[in-house]
Please model this.
Amino acid sequence: MAQVLRVLGVETSCDETAASVVDLDAGRLRVRSNVVSSQIAVHAEYGGVVPELASRAHLERLLPTLRAALEPVAEGRACRETLASLDAIAVASRPGLIGSLLVGTSAAKALAWSIDHPVLAVDHVAAHLVGAMLDAEPVAFPSLGLVVSGGHTALFLMRDALTLEPLAGTPDDAVGEAFDKGAALLGLPYPGGPQIERLAARGDSSAVKFPVPQLDFSFSGLKTALLHEIQPPPRRAKGRADAVSGAPLTDDRRADLAASYQRALVRAVIHGMEHLWSERWSDASAPERPKTLLVGGGVAANGLLRSELAAFANAQSIALQIAPLHYCLDNAAMIAGVGALRAARGERDPLDFAPQPISLLRPTRTLSVGRPS
Ligand code: KG4
Ligand code: ZN
Model:
């Protein structure tokens, strides 16, 4: 029987302090523990993540979080023996807030050094796709990988779980950021994605016709359109009874705006994917036609997006694997998952690797190729 690889994952790239133990057992990633300490309460009053506060909160929370993640696999052993029973330690090393990344990577390096085990530096964006493989059946490759998070909207051709070719990405803010900024315009607290989804549930998504980009993942026009619905520029406001600059929004109108805005953001993601698909794989015998659509990242928790992705996958006759809700948002199980897959290939990183604020997996082009000028 194949050997089980056990990896500890550490995640401190933004505003979640997380640790997890994952086993790679007969080709499957099995999550043994998954502990996430969210900093939402720390940052909520500022309407977004404050980097210095995030680093400090990681420092305070990381050791208790690590202990809690090791506890379920301790089997009565002392912490040091439990650590020694691991095969490797994986840590998110990019992209993210540099002060926050430094906390996790320093801790992971120190632990790995103290027990003389390999350390693996993991790209957080790529790890979101492995989030869709945790506790799941093996994936059929090639696969189309979609990451929709606060920092990234990106599509990858995945030849296997670790071999990713970036195909497209947003030319401006990521879709999660568009949710968060839209929520701020509507007076909703941070993080805005779940708040918009909640408010949208009692609104009419056809009430406001927002411009939906057809070819690329560009959300800046949509944010401006929402701003203009809330505070119309003087010329457009003229003669409009429904939205007078500075007038308070009624609850019903806010719900309609949330529903219409959410629908436009989701449509923009789907249109971008449809455009790419028709460019590359409309012919069923086209090379490297994906067999599966893998989806991860915080925005993949959105119910409307999940159902539209299901319709997309159905239309292309491919399998759909979306991370379950608890693995969509930032977590360390996805980091440990990448670590386990890399450790199985005998890979390790030197202890002197440096964390980086930017992902190495930047798209080589945006989807706007061929867009009429
Ligand atoms: O992946 P994630 O936890 O962190 C990053 O890597 O950025 O994603 C966080 C993003 C935030 O922008 C948040 O508003 C968004 O995911 N989000 C959602 C939902 N839940 C979280 N967006 C839309 N609908 C949701 N239910
Ligand atoms: Zn993330």
